[in-house]
Amino acid sequence: MPILDIFGHRETLGDARDEILFLRQFVADELSVEEWPMDESHISLRIHEIEGALIGEVELVITAHFFADRIKSKDRICFNIREKLENRWNKQVRVWLKLVELGYGVKNEE
């Protein structure tokens, strides 16, 4: 399942905290592919308050399983998320999408 990590200073993270359900659904919509349609319940969201220098006021790092459609669309996905959140929050947002091979421990009920 994709992990959405959001980084920012305390004063810039208010929008993200207020819109957790929106963020989970929006990212799920952007990451959905034919092989794996998703909804908000598939997205794990973590908010990190940090001190130090950032490239944007808010930074998002999305880690998700690679699918061919995601690889072809990776820049479009990042752009769509960045544009939507910058317009919605009026903040400088940066987005990175890490597509990786994932394994996870799920017990199959037989």
Question: What does this entry look like structurally?
Answer:
By secondary structure, the protein is an alpha/beta fold. The protein is built from 3 helices and 4 strands; from the N terminus they run βααββαβ. It is globular, with a radius of gyration of 14 Å.
Helix and strand topology:
Elements: E1 3-8, H1 14-18, H2 20-31, E2 44-49, E3 58-65, H3 68-89, E4 93-100
Parallel strand pairs: 1-2, 3-4
Antiparallel strand pairs: 1-3
Helix pairs in contact: 2-3
Number of domains: 1
Percent of residues in helices comes to 25-40%
CATH architecture call? 2-Layer Sandwich
| Low-confidence runs | none
Report the C-alpha radius of gyration, rounded.
14 Å
Give short descriptive properties of this protein.
about 110 residues; Macrophage Migration Inhibitory Factor; four-stranded mixed β-sheet
